[in-house]
Amino acid sequence: MNKKGFIFDLDGVIVDTAKYHFLAWKKLANSLDIDFTEEENEQLKGVSRIRSLEKILSWGNKTISEDKFTELMAKKNDDYLSHISNMDDNEILPDVPRVLDFLIEHRQPISLGSASKNARTILERVHLKEHFDTIVDGNDVSKAKPDPEVFLIAAKLLEIEPAQCIVFEDSVAGVEAANVANMISIGIGSEDVLGHATYVFKDFTEISNEFLESLIEN
Ligand code: G6P
Ligand code: MG
Predict the structure, then answer these.
(1) Ligand found nearest the CA of 138
(2) Is 108 in the pocket of ligand 1 (CB under 6 A)?
(3) CB 133 within 8 A of CB 4
(4) Among 63, 93, 109, 203, which residue's Cβ finds the most Cβ atoms within 10 Å?
(5) Which uninterrupted H or E stretch holds 167?
(6) What's the CA dihedral at 77, 82, 86, 89 to 10 degrees?
(7) How many angstroms separate the alpha carbon of residue 190 from the centre of ligand 1?
(8) Separation of CA 47 and ligand 2 centre (Å)
(9) Does any ligand 1 atom lie closer than 6 A to the CB of residue 115?
(10) Closest atom of ligand 1 relative to the 77 alpha carbon
(11) Distance, C-alpha 88 to centroid of its chain
């Protein structure tokens, strides 16, 4: 059987944490008198914590000291952690377990490819850590998506050529990173936002086992 590398983003793909990132960033931005809309949030999906705060500050035309910057990053993360502290398996997005189980059954290498430094904690909390052969997260990379670094490291660890890898992503930056890495990108979300992906599905319920099979075989 063919082997492909299947790489999953975490936030907004495996678990519905995108809403918690949004709430935490909104609270922080508003505390600085900066407006924060859903459209702006879309641009932060997949983007590292540091880069996200830089963007919010630039949207609000604010400059702050390095100490304040560090303080705000910690504040955002504390707030985010309080949201995810009660997470359990119920917050796994629909049909993600079916897709992971199908790939495991078909002996396909699977990696996480997330910008989040909280990725391992979250995977443990929702009991999915064992489903992954490798985990590459925000602690392992120096360049944030749309740089392809996170996915290229994952491919290397899985020992699969980038062109033989398939990335599931909900963010504009993540789809771009997968495309730059020369991987097949599967957007999870709306066609309007993720039109640059190779394929787009609303969620995993739209991804059939036949489609997964065709990805493995072609
Ligand atoms: C993911 C999310 C982003 C988040 C980033 C860093 O890519 O989509 O919204 O900013 O991870 O997450 P962290 O948990 O390290 O703050
Ligand atoms: Mg995401």
Answers:
(1) 1
(2) no
(3) no
(4) 109
(5) strand 165-169
(6) -20
(7) 20
(8) 8
(9) yes
(10) 16
(11) 18
103 CA distance to ligand 1 middle (Å): 25
Residue matched to tokens 């996200």: 52
Q: Which residues are catalytic?
A: 9, 11
Protein residue whose Cα sits closest to atom 14 of ligand 1: 116
pLDDT of residue 1: 76
CB 201 within 8 A of CB 170: no
CB 112 within 8 A of CB 82: no
DSSP 11: B
pTM over 0.90: yes
- For a mutational test of ligand 1's pocket, the pick from 23, 48, 118, 136, i.e. the residue with the most ligand atoms closer than 8 A to its C-beta, is 48
How remote is the CA of residue 102 from the centroid of ligand 1, in Å? Answer: 27
pLDDT tens-digit profile, the chain (218 residues): 799 999 999 999 999 998 999 999 999 999 999 999 989 998 999 899 999 999 999 999 999 999 999 999 999 999 999 999 989 999 999 999 999 999 999 999 999 999 999 999 999 999 999 999 999 999 999 998 999 999 999 999 999 999 999 999 999 999 999 999 999 999 999 999 999 999 999 999 999 999 999 999 98
Q: Residue 202's pLDDT is what?
A: 98
C-alpha separations of 30 from 50, 62, 130, 152 in Å: 18, 13, 38, 36
How far is residue 196 from each of residues 76, 142, 178, 179, 188, measured CA to CA in Å?
Answer: 30, 25, 10, 8, 12
At 187, which amino acid appears?
G
